[in-house]
TrEMBL record:
<keyword id="KW-0732">Signal</keyword>
<feature type="compositionally biased region" description="Basic and acidic residues">
    <location>
        <begin position="491"/>
        <end position="502"/>
    </location>
</feature>
<dbReference type="Pfam" id="PF13450">
    <property type="entry name" value="NAD_binding_8"/>
</dbReference>
<dbReference type="InterPro" id="IPR015899">
    <property type="entry name" value="UDP-GalPyranose_mutase_C"/>
</dbReference>
<feature type="signal peptide">
    <location>
        <begin position="1"/>
        <end position="18"/>
    </location>
</feature>
<feature type="domain" description="UDP-galactopyranose mutase C-terminal">
    <location>
        <begin position="248"/>
        <end position="455"/>
    </location>
</feature>
<feature type="region of interest" description="Disordered">
    <location>
        <begin position="473"/>
        <end position="502"/>
    </location>
</feature>
<dbReference type="Pfam" id="PF03275">
    <property type="entry name" value="GLF"/>
</dbReference>
<dbReference type="GO" id="GO:0008767">
    <property type="term" value="F:UDP-galactopyranose mutase activity"/>
</dbReference>
<protein>
    <recommendedName>
        <fullName>UDP-galactopyranose mutase C-terminal domain-containing protein</fullName>
    </recommendedName>
</protein>
<dbReference type="GO" id="GO:0050660">
    <property type="term" value="F:flavin adenine dinucleotide binding"/>
</dbReference>
<dbReference type="GO" id="GO:0005829">
    <property type="term" value="C:cytosol"/>
</dbReference>
Amino acid sequence: MLVPSIAALLSSVASTPAAGVVLADDRSPAGERRLPERRHLHERSMRGGGGTLFQRFFPRTPGEQPEVISSPLEHALPNVDDGGLGKAYTSVPEPPRKWDVCVVGAGLSGGVIAERYATLRKQSVLIVEKRRHIAGNCYDFLDDQTGLRLNLYGPHNFHTKLTNVWDYVKRFGRWAHYYHKKLAWSEGRFVPFPLNTETLNTIYDQHLMGANETAAFLAKIAEPCGPGGCSNSEQQSVASVGRAAYNQFYRGYTLKQWGVDPSQLDALVTGRISVRSDFDNRYFTDRYQSQPRDGYTRWMAGILSDPLIDLVLGVDWFDVQQRLAGRCGKLIFTGPIDHYFADSGLPKLTYRSLRFEKLAVLNIGEHGYYQPGTSVNYPEMAVPFTRSTEYKHYPGQPRSNHTVVVRETSGADGEPYYPVPNPRNHALYAKYKALADKEALKGVHFVGRLANYKYFNMDQAIDNALRIFDGLDRDSAPGRPPVKKRKKEHKGGAHEDALHFD
Ligand SMILES: Cc1cc2nc3c(=O)[nH]c(=O)nc-3n(C[C@H](O)[C@H](O)[C@H](O)COP(=O)(O)OP(=O)(O)OC[C@H]3O[C@@H](n4cnc5c(N)ncnc54)[C@H](O)[C@@H]3O)c2cc1C
């Protein structure tokens, strides 16, 4: 759909900013010039409300108007994409072919296990993937319209504290150092998120200078939970950042993301969002933070490149399960656990999903940008989406005269992305897990975020897959050394667990 002007395009987006809001698209909240070398096309609120949220841009040549085209992101999806491997089947090979290991799902979990069996144990592996591409939710591709590399299922930022995981991922491609930063757009201005000293100074009109002052200020505005601890996300957030910041940054975002009030969600949902008592505006504090230079799909192709791995794309396991009976030594299942046990009579687990809208901004110029950073959160209810990502800010992007912003809106229907952490789902998952434990006796193993109904960051998914391989491997060859227990549960900063603030 061609759209003649930004105002017309976005007139459907409601905007009700408070009267007298600060207009901050040229200057950072701290009063310094922001990214002076780049020109941005981004949103700006009207004083007194009533206008469109997006109305100002900086075309490369004066008088030249960029063209803005909006479409669902999945329309950009290319045909079958095995990341350049050139070995994907689109149907299961006929008998008498057999494999030592069959894997359902060509995402990180399935890919890592397949790679281990093929390269370390020289065993044959068949991967069956229902999507037409490899890499699971990390999948990225070059967009025909703009030449930029986009993630189909939301932006992915690699970060880890785990040296074994970092050593592993480096073996399959080049990585570019990258510190992810996030801004939140609220009351007409951009502020760093998660909240840090700069954010607190801006929203509370303070002049806090260091950790002690910030900590003392936070202690003053916080409303501590009772002696029993915080029992939900509202209490937890108010205890951490105070009522005003909760209302401004957490409440609306959580409502939009989860479809329920924070008072109805586990305290852990917001509990692991860090609050910084310094000016550090990196989103993650992990030691290793990088992006694959040639994208996640190419990098995953490296993981799957062993000739002992056969790959079938665009085929649902449940459609070929019968044809493969007796032809797989072991089965590794990385799909949703409740799909595997669909005949068990148990109710379904619930998930949150996302819809992605692609906004291509054409002819903005090679140095033209839409927003001041890669990622912007929108906590206000007046804005229907939760987050926008401008991929051109990522390292390793091809040069382009255009830019693309992808906006995310949450919902209950669609691809299962986020497990919903509530007592009903915890209890139900325990029942599925008991079924899965019995299935393990038949050589079926459940690996990954959908099979474990647990939000894994990429590094956690890799670590988990490596450890499961080690465990299975040791069981099949008892002489092998035991898997070392991890001393402390991995903590990954803001992006954790069921957090969804990824
Ligand atoms: C929106 C979003 C943003 C994220 N951002 C980050 C981030 O910034 N940093 C980070 O570290 N992590 C991030 N993650 C998490 C990351 O995507 C996961 O850690 C990773 O994808 C887990 O890999 P997996 O193989 O377990 O699952 P998946 O990637 O989901 O792979 C499972 C695969 O199994 C396939 N499958 C399912 N059922 C069947 C079937 N019946 N037959 C055949 N195939 C089947 C699926 O199609 C899928 O390809 C994000 C996740 C989401 C949803």
